[in-house]
Structures are given as C-alpha cells and as structure tokens.
C-alpha cells in the first residue's frame, strides 16, 4: 500500500439498501455525481445475502461532496441512509 495515494479517501457509507441491489447497480446510481473508484455491497459470507449496506469511494472530492450533501437518495423505492464513512487510519 502506498501512503501517498491513500491520503484522501472520499468514502461514503450507504445503508438501507434494497436486497436486490448489486455492487454494479450501486456504482451506477452514484456515478451520476462523478467518477466512482469503487462501490461494494456487503454480503453475508455464509448466506450469500445482502446485509443492506455498502460503501462507495469517489475519486474526486467534488463528486463525494455532491453525493454526501444531497438530502435524499432514492434507489428502487427506498430512501438510502448515506453518510460520510469514518476513516481513522
């Protein structure tokens, strides 16, 4: 791991995801704000089912700020719980 590249991460926690949403769909939704470096829905490893939350990492601060400052995010009829992820490295 390079210490310089990971200096600023623009990572959001996304909760209350519909169980039907994949990482690809999560990336697609948040890409409207800017380039998504990574999007991941967290799954239960034993059951293979969504844990109803995930993380989105943006490559640019503007996209991150736009997404995190939007009041309501709606995906497949559900209001998402979007918060800035706490990264204490």
UniProtKB/TrEMBL annotation:
Cross-referenced SMART domains, in alphabetical order? RRM (SM00360)
Say yes or no: keyword Iron-sulfur present: no
Pfam families to which the protein is assigned, alphabetical: RRM_1
RRM domain: residues covered: 10-87
The protein's superkingdom reads: Eukaryota
On whether Nucleus is a keyword of this UniProt record, the answer is no
| Gene3D superfamilies assigned to the protein according to its UniProt record, in alphabetical order | 3.30.70.330
The leader peptide range reads none
Q: Which UniProt keywords apply?
A: RNA-binding
Q: Which residues form a coiled coil?
A: none
This protein is called SRA stem-loop-interacting RNA-binding protein, mitochondrial
For this protein's source organism, the top of the classification is:
Eukaryota, Metazoa, Ecdysozoa, Arthropoda, Hexapoda
């Amino acid at each position: 791991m390079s210490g310089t590249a990971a200096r600023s991460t623009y990572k959001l926690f996304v909760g209350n995801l519909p169980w039907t949403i994949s990482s690809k769909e999560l990336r697609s939704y948040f890409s409207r704000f800017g380039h998504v470096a990574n999007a991941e829905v967290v799954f239960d490893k034993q059951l293979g089912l969504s844990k109803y939350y995930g993380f989105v990492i943006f490559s640019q601060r503007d996209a991150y700020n736009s997404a995190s400052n939007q009041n309501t995010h709606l995906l497949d009829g559900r209001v998402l719980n979007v918060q800035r992820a706490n990264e204490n490295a």
